[in-house]
C-alpha cells in the first residue's frame, strides 16, 4: 500500500512542475522521488504522469488522485502537530503579528483579559504586511497573526474571521484628482497609484493594480504619507486616513460610483502545532467578532 513519502513526492512534483524540482524541495535525490512515484503508480495500478514531454503532466488518473493526496498530507501534518502538542505547556512568551492596516486599539482591548488569565505570559507585538506575516508564521514566530484575508492560506495554519475593516480611495487635497469626479476606474489609470506589497514583492489578493504607474510600500502609514504629499492615490483603511481627513490634508476621492471602496475581511491565523493549546483558544475567543461592521 502507498506511503506518505510517496504522496509527498507525487504532490510536490505537481506543485513544482518536475521531478528534479520536487527533489530539491524535499531535499532528496531525484532517483528517490522518481521511485516513490513509480511505486505509487504500481500501488494504484494507474499511470499518474505522462512523461513524454520535457515536464511531467498529470494523467486523468493523476488529476483524480491529487485532491485526495493533498487532503491526506494535510491531515497527516495535523496529526504530527497534535502529537507534538500533547505534552506542551503554555508558552512563556507569545508573539502576535498584526497588519498595520488593522486597528490595534480594538485588539488591545482584549489584552487585559488575557493578562489576567495568564499573568506569567509575556506578550510581544510585531507589525508587518499580511503576506509577510503568513511567511513569518511558517517559522513559528510569531505563533499568531492578524491579517487581511488572503486567498491562499498554507495548510499548516488554522484561521478564522474576526470581522472586517472598511477601505476607501483617498488622495491629497492638492492632487488633480481631488478637483474632479471620476466617472469610472479609467480616470484612476492616468495617475500614479500607491500600493501595498510584501517585502518579497507579493501583492495582496485584494490590492488591485489599476494604474501603470505604481509606487509600493509595505505598510499603510507610508502610503498615507505619500498620499498626503501628493504622490498619488491609494486605498486606505478608514482609521488610517481619519486624522488626515479631519486636518484637510487628505480627501476621499470624488467618484460617480460613490461606493467604489470596499471592506476587507480580517483573519486570525495560528500555527496548527499550537492552536489547540488553551491559551490560544482563549485568545481566539476574546478576539471573535471584534471587528464586526
Write a structural description.
The protein has eleven helices and eleven strands. With 293 residues, it is an alpha/beta fold. The chain has two domains: 82 residues, Orthogonal Bundle (Arc Repressor Mutant, subunit A), CATH 1.10.10; 203 residues, D-Maltodextrin-Binding Protein, domain 2 (3-Layer(aba) Sandwich), CATH 3.40.190. The strands form two sheets. Strands 3, 4, 5, 6, 7, 8, 9, 10 and 11 form a nine-stranded mixed beta sheet that branches. Strands 1-2 form a two-stranded antiparallel sheet. Strand 1 and strand 2 form a beta hairpin. Helix 1 packs across helix 3 and helix 2 packs across helix 3. The radius of gyration is 24 Å and the shape is flat. The N and C termini lie far apart (51 Å). The model has no long low-confidence stretch (mean pLDDT 85). This is LysR family transcriptional regulator. Belongs to the LysR transcriptional regulatory family. Keywords: DNA-binding, Transcription, Transcription regulation. Pfam families: HTH_1, LysR_substrate. InterPro entries: LysR_HTH_N, LysR_subst-bd, WH-like_DNA-bd_sf, WH_DNA-bd_sf.
Features:
293 residues; alpha/beta; Arc Repressor Mutant, subunit A; D-Maltodextrin-Binding Protein, domain 2; 2 domains; two-stranded antiparallel sheet; 11 strands; 22% strand; flat
